Structure formats: C-alpha cells, structure tokens
Amino acid sequence: MSDSPSKSNYHHGDLRQKLLEAATETIKSQGIEALSLRKLATEVGVSRMAPYHHFKDKNELLCAIAEQGFQQRKNTVVDQSQITNEEDNQLLSYMLNYVRFAQKNPEIYELMFGRTIWKNQIDNDSLKNAAYPTFQYQLDLTKQWQANGLLDANANSLRLSQVIWGTMHGIAKLLIDGIYTDTSQIEAICMCAAEQFAIKLEQ
Amino acid sequence: MSDSPSKSNYHHGDLRQKLLEAATETIKSQGIEALSLRKLATEVGVSRMAPYHHFKDKNELLCAIAEQGFQQRKNTVVDQSQITNEEDNQLLSYMLNYVRFAQKNPEIYELMFGRTIWKNQIDNDSLKNAAYPTFQYQLDLTKQWQANGLLDANANSLRLSQVIWGTMHGIAKLLIDGIYTDTSQIEAICMCAAEQFAIKLEQ
DNA sequence: CTCTCTAAGTTGACACTGTCAAGATTGATC
DNA sequence: GATCAATCTTGACAGTGTCAACTTAGAGAG
C-alpha cells in the first residue's frame, strides 16, 4: 500500500494483458517448456494463484498466446500479399514467408500449430475463430493460383491447399525441431518445393 | 528375499529392457506427457532411482525408445519395398505407408521426429546412427525414382528428397497433432501430393 | 453514506515431478 | 576370502500445477 501509490496490489486492472506479454516474452526467449505459472506470477509481481482468475488453466493461457500469434500472423500475411509484385514467383514468396515466420518465431509457431494446443481443444472457440481464417486464406490463395495457371487447375483445391500447407509445415517443423539443422538451405528447399508445385508453361 | 526366489530384487538383469518395454507401452497408450519415471519404476517393481543406472536422464530413456522406433521402422519399410509391384504407383504407396505409420503410432512418431529428442541432441550418437539410415534411404529412393522417370530428374536429389519428406512429415504432423481431424481424408491428401510430384508421361 | 455483493488477489496445502547424494546389497574377480 | 564395481535403495530438495478457503477492495443499490 506504500510502494505503489495509484494502484494497490488488488485489482491492478490489466493483469491479464501483463501476463500474456510476460508469458510471450518468456516463451520466445526460453521456450515453452520453461514457462512456469508460478515464476510468471512472481515476475509480474502477483501471487501464485492470481493468474487463475484470468485463465482457467495453464493450457488456456497457452491457447490465448497462440491466439495472439494467429492475429499477428494474419496481419503479416496480408501486408506481404499487398507488397508482392505480380511478376514475382508468388508461390515461392509465400512459402519462404511462411517458413521464415516459423524460423523467426519457433516457439510461438510451435504453440500455434503444435499438439499442446490442438490435442483436446474441441472446446476453445476463441482459438478456433482466430485460427480458421488462416486456414481459409490458404485455401483462397490456392484457388486463386489455380485460376491464374500457377497451380494445377485439375487438382481438388482443398486437397491441394492441404498438401501445400503440409509441405510448408513439414519443412518448418523439421527446421525448428532441430532435424534439418542447416538453416542456410531454407531458400534452396523452398525453391525446390515451389518448382514441384508450379505448372511450367514452356516444356 | 522371500517372494522372488530365483532373482533377488538386486541385479535382476534385464531391467533396462523391461523399462524400455513398459515405457513404450505407457507412451503408446497414454502419451509421452503421461510418462513418469517414478511411476515407471514402481510399475516394473523397482525403486525410484533404479532406472538412473541404465539411463542418465529421462531424456536418454526417450531417446532409446525413439531408437527402437527407427529400428522397427526400418524393417517395415524394407518389407514394404519388397512387396510393392513395379506397376504400382510407388510414390503414392510410399507416402501412404509413411503417413499411416505415423497415424498408427502417433506417440512413437512424435518421439522419433519431435523436438523433445532432437533439440540439444548433438551428443547422442547411438540415436543418430539409428536415424540416419532412414534419412539416407529416402534419398536413395528419390534418386532411384528420378532415374526411373517417376520424379523430376532436373531437380537436385537432396533438395527433392527433403521436400518430399517435408510433405509427408507435415501431413503426418497435422494429422496426429489434431489439426487435420478427418483421418478418412488421408488417402485423398496423399494422392493429391503424389500427383503433384509425379512426372506425367502423357500430357 | 452505508451495505452488500462480487471480482480479484492472497496463503495453505496436496500430490505430483526429476534427480543429487549417500548408503546397502550383490555377483564377479584377484 | 577380500575387494571392487555394478546395481538397487531411501532420504532429501527444489520444483510444478491447482483445489480450497481466506481477505480485500471497488462498484452499485438502498
């Protein structure tokens, strides 16, 4: 009551947001496994159980962070799509952008597309609402590229979208999980991938 | 000393193997997260710290289980390659086989190709020796298929191998991590993937 | 202005976890 | 038969997530 004049320890108002920020920071720098609710609480200057008034679970906190990730990713993707010139290899750009996002934010990516969140998460509508537009966007792009003649127009759009996503996700995972250790190959790998999917006009 | 006549509790000889088997069983049925060394020990009928004389770490135990997985997988793959007829769509068969292995053994797959093992595992040579043949085998197959005209002969073999693996791994992960929930689509997705990589002779 | 109600923050307690250290038991070897 | 190293044991510690039961304070009704 003496060291914080305007706000007493009770009801300091933006605890939920503070927790999200601090947790995101910890995860980015030390990894998901290093996140402890107790440490987090003391770090924010609050007692052990305080976070439980804002998140039912540790898992719900993680879901909320993933949700933020989806929001952030959505904006990035939209920005990127407006910059890209028509003459560029759009598919390659898209893939590179995807994999690099994963590479730059490995722990957040892990959270967004990893088992921790998605196993047994039938209930969390908020997360799903944040995530589904991302999936939908990929499908729309695929359709667009099929129409443009960049991708195989004969393929079922949903399937093709799933396969391309699978490819990007797989490459990203192999990289950030430490199986592909040479990150300098990212460009070469993505180029090879893009070439496989691209329809060659002259051949 | 009374209830086990032939073997006293000390030196019961095959503890390492017993631990591996019990741990594998638990992981398969309850998931990696559910594996506790203490529970495992009591389950096998031994005290808390006994496992530490056979595995330095919990992590080393997990590595050993993954290693077994690689051994087992190697045999399966070889069997499969001998059965496959020449006229079949070999690429599709291979992809389906891969993804279905992951689907049938999700937790073991998670271990074999997941971050738990591969992060900070520069030291574990035994694991690497078991895993690398799998990677090498994929590369060899890719080269073979390129020579056969099934895959793009112009592509760099290593890159192409990495991309195809990425695709399979990505699809597998999205399935077993609970993002692709409809497992009945596996065939359709793999077919679409195989078609993208395959060189079409008539077109 | 007071009374109440509730959202938010608190400490105590419990059942877990992995693992360090130090002691006990054993079968094999000189 | 004594020694030694491998193996198994219990004690202890520092963590973890979270249930229960409390305290506090701010907001709204009387």
Description:
- 2 copies of one chain form a homodimer.
- With 203 residues, chain A is mainly alpha-helical.
- Helices cover 66% and strands 0% of the residues of chain A.
- The first copy, chain A, has 9 helices and no strands.
- Chain A has helices spanning 15-30, 37-44, 58-83, 90-104, 106-113, 115-118, 125-148, 157-176, 186-197.
- In chain A, helix 1 crosses helix 2 (37-44), helix 3 crosses helix 5 and helix 7 crosses helix 8.
- The termini of chain A are far apart.
- In chain A, 33% of the residues are buried.
- The interface between A and B is large, with 39 and 39 residues.
- The structure holds a DNA duplex (30 and 30 nucleotides).
What can be said about this structure in brief?
The structure is a homodimer of 203-residue chains. The first copy, chain A, is mostly helical and 203 residues long. The first copy, chain A, contains 9 helices and no strands.
Blueprint of the fold:
Two copies of one chain form a homodimer.
Chain A (H helix, E strand, L loop, with lengths): L14 H16 L6 H8 L13 H26 L6 H15 L1 H8 L1 H4 L6 H24 L8 H20 L9 H12 L6
Helix pairs in contact in A: 1-2, 3-5, 3-7, 4-5, 4-8, 4-9, 7-8, 8-9
The structure holds a DNA duplex (30 and 30 nucleotides).
